[in-house]
Design brief:
Elements: H1 3-7, H2 19-38, H3 42-45, H4 56-75, H5 115-135, H6 155-184
Length: 185
């Protein structure tokens, strides 16, 4: 089985526990996301298929930035370029749809960025995540500074949170790929 096919398969039931298990599952869902977006044509990648208006390319950018925010900026406390680069505002949590003087917070990807470029960047973020999971125990607390000024979570909590977010978004992407396929028929 190729490395790519292994990543597209759920990790073995008898595999390593702890950080190695987290790493395997994050690799799996990350690969599922990339595979789903790359299966679409470039036009389909930039098409909003659901009423909220996001595109598959924007979703891929979002999970890239999300994982980097949690493991690099959040857990390690390292600065990252454009931690909210997947959004059209620096503080997406302050967006209020009822305030017409402020832009509605939404994901964005510039027209020059391709799915292949995002997939490469996501693989690099995944490599950083694998390093964090290799070098720190699951009960380690996130570094002060970075993303967490107060009440920093443990690495295990971050793993649960990130895997849950990936799972939600993988389900969203599955629906979009199905709709896109139905439109192509």
């Amino acid at each position: 089985m190729s490395e790519r096919d292994q990543k597209l398969s759920e990790p073995a039931k008898s595999g390593a526990a702890g950080a190695a298990r987290w790493s395997d599952y994050l690799d799996w869902v990350r690969s599922e996301m990339v595979h789903g977006v790359l299966a679409l044509s470039p036009e389909e990648q930039r098409t909003p298929w659901v009423p909220s208006g996001w595109t598959p390319l924007e979703l891929l950018s979002h999970v890239l930035h999300m994982e980097q925010r949690w493991f690099v900026w959040g857990f390690l406390g390292e600065p990252v370029a454009e931690p909210w680069g997947d959004w059209n505002t620096d503080e997406p949590w302050t967006s209020d749809d009822s305030d017409e003087t402020r832009p509605r917070a939404r994901w964005q990807v510039s027209g020059e960025v391709t799915a292949e470029q995002l997939a490469e960047r996501l693989e690099a973020v995944g490599e950083r995540t694998r390093g964090v999971l290799r070098d720190f125990p699951p009960d380690a607390t996130a570094a002060p500074g970075g993303r967490f000024a107060e009440d920093p979570p443990t690495l295990e909590w971050i793993c649960f949170h990130v895997l849950a977010e990936y799972a939600r978004h993988a389900g969203h992407l599955d629906i979009v790929v199905e709709i896109a396929g139905d439109q192509a028929d």
